[in-house]
Amino acid sequence: MQKVKVGEQFLYEIEFNNAKIIVDNSDLVLDISETGSGFANVIYKNGSFNTEVVEINTSDKSCKIKVNGNIYTVSIEDQYDQLLKQLGLDNLTANKILEVKAPMPGLVLNIFINEGGEVKKGDNLLILEAMKMENILKASADGTVKKISISKGDKVEKNQVLIQFI
User: Fold this and answer.
1) Nearest to 59, CA basis, from 13, 86, 95
2) Rounded to 5 degrees, what are φ and ψ at 164?
3) Going by C-beta distance under 8 Å and a sequence separation of 6 or more, which residues neighbour residue 152?
4) Per-residue pLDDT of the chain in tens (166 residues, 90 and over written 9)
5) Residue 36: strand, helix, or coil
6) Is 82 in a helix, a strand, or coil?
7) Helix (H) or strand (E) run with residue 135 in it
8) pTM to 2 decimals?
């Protein structure tokens, strides 16, 4: 059995049994005709729905699906994910960020974080100017800033440690 979450509102238990799809212990009857790569027309309870797979993220087992012009985020939790969660091991695969190194030599133009501060994945950390281009370095995972080893205006070398995390 798999758990499928659609957006933040709906959670379904889905089971595949031979050619049947069972959703929350009820048979699901669909008529699906593929109209192209990633596109399909689905008929459900005499209603017609045009669908398109917009984006697939295999690392977190999610995708974005457009249904009649509305985009829905769908995430799937299989039996192994459920077992890991029951055992309390579901966060072991989360990325740990320990340090940020300079990807190239350059000049630190701005720093957006402070020591002891929390950062979320995707947050801006600093701006590094290299070859007359401004590069924004972002957090690759959630974390807490332990030490900032550089200051605004510093020149840095490639692979120099800029920020350390707890």
Assistant:
1) 95
2) -115, 145
3) 108, 109, 110, 111
4) 899 999 888 999 999 888 889 999 999 999 999 998 889 999 999 999 999 999 998 878 899 999 999 999 999 998 888 888 888 766 655 567 789 999 999 999 999 999 999 999 889 999 999 988 999 999 988 889 999 999 999 999 999 999 999 8
5) strand
6) helix
7) strand 133-138
8) 0.52
